[in-house]
Design a protein that fits this description.
The protein is α+β, with helices and mostly antiparallel strands. It is about 45% helix and about 20% strand.
């Protein structure tokens, strides 16, 4: 996990150790002890002790009663100071909740981050049976409607860069991803069966900013309930989701033609 190499032009060993620890703890649901962290990073406990103390003092990690370190919400809070995330979450929350309540489905908002989708906002409807995507989740672009929506409105260079960050796979899933993009761009949304969960139809549409760039995707993992009176037809739910994205695009400064 250590990204510091012998030919690095600039070295900051303490910073590298701190980032390694944060990245490691981000995937440790139950936390890790100091010795466990050292073993997994290939470092002695004395090497990481001072870094852990600084991270704890700054509020990025916490220590529980079992002497295991956990990430706090500090990184999440810092990330949400980023202008685009702050702007999107500020304008999208109420609209997403209204949509979730109306179509009786959960809704999430994604942006691209280092070749993957990052869920930066999520809301549920009052129904007891929902399919929820966890806030903060990172999702491979090939597996998602959100990835198709954001990629479909990219120029060639931008798309090439995205694919490079995501990993230039030659799998059938990547081929299907690329083949879907023209139709998604033409329709202005993506709708199709989930590639990971049976019985779910993913519906996603883009949110544009004032430059005409698709900066986020609003998505619902629409579940087909067998009972209940709130089962809005999937196509009606899609139309409402698209309209919500048009409104969010307008509030982000997009023109009428950009907020398709």
């Amino acid at each position: 996990m250590d990204t510091e190499t012998s030919d690095s032009k600039y070295r900051a060993p303490a910073l590298s150790k701190g980032l390694d620890i944060l990245e490691l703890l981000s995937s440790a649901d139950d936390g890790l002890s100091q010795s466990d962290i050292g073993k997994k990073l290939g470092r002695t406990t004395s090497e990481i002790f001072r870094v852990l103390m600084v991270l704890r003092d700054r509020g990025y990690v916490d220590l529980d009663e079992a002497e295991r370190y956990h990430l706090t919400t500090r990184l999440f809070e810092v990330a949400h100071r980023h202008p685009i995330i702050r702007r999107l979450t500020a304008i999208a929350g109420d609209e997403m909740q209204k949509l979730a309540n109306r179509i009786s489905q959960s809704i999430h908002l994604c942006i691209l981050n280092s070749g993957k989708l990052l869920v930066i906002a999520q809301v549920d409807c009052p129904d007891t049976n929902v399919n929820t995507v966890r806030l903060g989740s990172q999702i491979p672009i090939d597996d998602s409607a959100s990835g198709r929506v954001l990629a479909a409105f990219m120029g060639e260079d931008e798309l090439s860069n995205l694919l490079s960050l995501a990993g230039n796979e030659t799998s059938s899933r990547r081929a299907r991803f690329l083949a879907d993009l023209p139709e998604v761009r033409k329709a202005g949304y993506c709708q199709g069966k989930s590639l990971t969960i049976e019985g779910v139809t993913n519906i996603s549409a883009p949110v544009f900013d004032f430059t005409g760039k698709a900066v986020a995707a609003v998505t619902t993992p629409y579940i087909h309930r067998l009972t209940g009176t709130d089962n809005m037809p999937v196509d009606e739910a899609r139309e409402l989701l698209v309209q919500t994205c048009k409104e969010l695009s307008r509030r982000m400064g997009a023109g009428v033609t950009n907020g398709k």
